[in-house]
Amino acid sequence: MVAARSPSVLRQKKMLKIVVPFLLLLVVVFLVYNKEDYEKEYPLLLENEQLVVCYESNIDQRRPLYAIAPLSETTTDESSTTQRNHQHHRQQFQQQQLFDGTEPIIYIVTPTYPRREQFPEIIRLGQTLMHVPRLHWIVADDTSSCNAALNSHIKKFGIPYTQLASPMPEMYRARKNAPRGVANRRAALHWIRQNQKKTGVLYFGDDDNTFDLKLFSEIRYTKKVSMFPVGLIGDYAISTPIVRNGRVEGFFDSWPAKRKWPVDMAGFAVSLEYLALSPNATMPFKAGYEEDEFLKSIGLKLEDIEPKARNCTEILVWHTQTKGSKSPTVRISMDRQKLNKLNLGALLSRLESMGVNHISESEGTTAQAIVNGSVKPLSFWFS
Ligand SMILES: *[C@@H]1O[C@H](CO)[C@@H](O)[C@H](O)[C@H]1NC(C)=O
């Protein structure tokens, strides 16, 4: 005899019939909704994206930072020989420095954004790049207006450069994991195309990286795509291709994340001839997947990759990273004009123009002076 089902079991079954499809619907809606973010096609420029070239110079105005001196003394005592050797050394040195203008130009793209480390970073990177011949520096700032204070620093280096204003679209800024630097690199790609740059090499070098100068001579003659290790990345403190018998066969990176090309932004260079073959190449606004998607968009194949840095045994670039705290607010309640009688007037204004700190009359840490070991209000000098 079959026992009749109790009414409560029947009710449960009915409930399931309603609840299960409802849950499935939720999952589908969630997937569709999420997919929008990740699988959207990204045109090179969004509709509201613009290429704003703020300042530009194509003239190399660099002067050597240090006097040219022979590296080693000769052993002979004969003065004329010594002199000749000195001359020889000098010529050799200059020949190393002097390029004949046929070498491929390195277009280094540096996204930057307003924060208190911005200026120090740009100064440090600029002074590194001063040593690299045949280089064009594209500095793309994450702001909607052109930063003149930034330009006054960039142009001092004498390096041929282009300064862009390339703000991240607001819709992405609202995300918790905002894709920083993407609008900047896309603007730089756009500039390269618009200016018909079809020879040379493209390199994405961030302002918080440290570069060994050797890196630039390694990447200058990149045929298609070159790759090399980047120090201080992730839980291995390194991200690098795995090289066997002089060929890239895989990758070593502590964040695989299903990426086909698990490399750091500073870990590859692309020749512009090769880039020109993919007119729709772009970088998506997808945090963590910028490198992977960009390299997919240029149709990269494993056999196209040239390992650099002695078959990826040397570290020529580091992700030093200087993630800082917020710019502090300094409270100065007295008339600031008066401070112009001291160095503090000009000094604090300069810091403020660089976004390093803010001055407020009513908030923040009160500015005080120390005189003979005791704390005084700033008005001390004016009383
Ligand atoms: C890289 O490895 C290959 C194969 O072992 C070798 O022929 C080549 O000389 C190496 N390159 C460098 C720069 O050491």
TrEMBL record:
Keywords: Glycoprotein, Golgi apparatus, Manganese, Membrane, Metal-binding, Signal-anchor, Transferase, Transmembrane, Transmembrane helix. It is found in: Golgi apparatus membrane. Its cofactor is Mn(2+). The active site is at E291 (proton donor/acceptor). It is a single-pass type II membrane protein. It catalyses: 3-O-(beta-D-galactosyl-(1->3)-beta-D-galactosyl-(1->4)-beta-D-xylosyl)-L-seryl-[protein] + UDP-alpha-D-glucuronate = 3-O-(beta-D-GlcA-(1->3)-beta-D-Gal-(1->3)-beta-D-Gal-(1->4)-beta-D-Xyl)-L-seryl-[protein] + UDP + H(+). This is Galactosylgalactosylxylosylprotein 3-beta-glucuronosyltransferase. It comes from Anopheles minimus.
